[in-house]
Amino acid sequence: MAEIKVATDANFQELVLGSDKPVVVDFWATWCGPCRMVAPEMEKLAAKYGDAVQVVKVDVDANPVLSQAFNIMSIPTIAFFRPGSDPAGKPYTPQGVVGFRPLEQLEQQFGLKQFLPAEKPADQSAPAA
To answer: Considering the domain 4-114, what is its CATH architecture?
Structure first.
């Protein structure tokens, strides 16, 4: 299972903005009840997508620079950072949703299924019975 990484003001550039993979970021706080509801969904996402999509948590109280930079006004906020740049050469703008969302809604909102690793075809070398 892929681990959920913890981003800070100091390492966000490296972990998220500099990633060559898609990144889902959970902006949360320890005192936030709905944030605790989101945590298991983030764990499911990390387990399902493995190394294809990176999952990162940011404690907004401990990292005020990030909260301000991304205009986080409500928590939980789940943000999706697509790697690379658009056809004009500009970095993709992160997408975000506020509040609890189950895994299925996050997948649909951010189009995550396109990043799932391709299923390996069944072994075709065995003779048919």
So the answer is: 3-Layer(aba) Sandwich (3.40)
Radius of gyration of the chain (CA): 17
Question: Across the chain, what does the average pLDDT equal?
Answer: 88
Q: CB neighbours of 110 closer than 8 A, spacing ≥ 6?
A: 22, 24, 80, 95
| pTM reported for the whole predicted model | 0.86
24, 35, 42, 79: which is the annotated catalytic residue? 35
Of the residues 4, 32, 37, 52, only one is catalytic, namely 32
Q: How far apart are CA 18 and CA 89, in angstroms?
A: 15
Is residue 32 flagged as an active site residue?
Answer: yes
